[in-house]
Amino acid sequence: xxxxxxxxxxxxxxxxxxxxxxxxxxxxxxxxxxxxxxxxxxxxxxxxxxxxxxxxxxxxxxxxxxxxxxxxxxxxxxxxxxxxxxxxxxxxxxxxxxxxxxxxxxxxxxxxxxxxxxxxxxxxxxxxxxxxxxxxxxxxxxxxxxxxxxxxxxxxxxxxxxxxxxxxxxxxxxxxxxxxxxxxxxxxxxxxxxxxxxxxxxxxxxxxxxxxxxxxxxxxxxxxxxxx
Length: 228
Fold this sequence. Notes:
The chain is α+β, with helices and mostly antiparallel strands. It is built from five helices and 13 strands. The protein is globular. It starts with a strand and ends with a helix.
């Protein structure tokens, strides 16, 4: 298979024989200095088995989203190889962020204390650019740069809020409170939008019943107990 893109936690391949696109879930985790953090832009380390475990969790959540009428790029998995077959879509360099309370980079950027609740939820969109520090970007700028067409920005935010609702309800069953999450959105030739990439603890932050924020590895292990 031909490598199309190598990211921090996944590699994208194209099967040139079948024209199918596959994601390889890697064992790397975002963070810094050995501390895992889903909001980080760097790889903080590697954990044996993380890729395949993340694939299981993503499969579970993509299928759960489909049950709630939320479109995703997920098609099928090859568990042995750690691969997920996905729709071939155009994916703009954007991350759509939903926050139930202040945390992480938001507090650093705007000098805010942690745990200020948002009602209604707070949403923002960032441009994926390590060099620019993932700056916030508006609907108007996305259209000026040719990243999105009119209406897609708000439609993506609507999908984001639906993903948050489903995820928040499911995590609450494990006594986990969803703090924030980020998703990526892709679109087909007709302009239809889909949730892409992954839905794992690499894209969200939660708080457990003791008030602790578990890292991605701990949270993944809790989820595997639920879904296996």
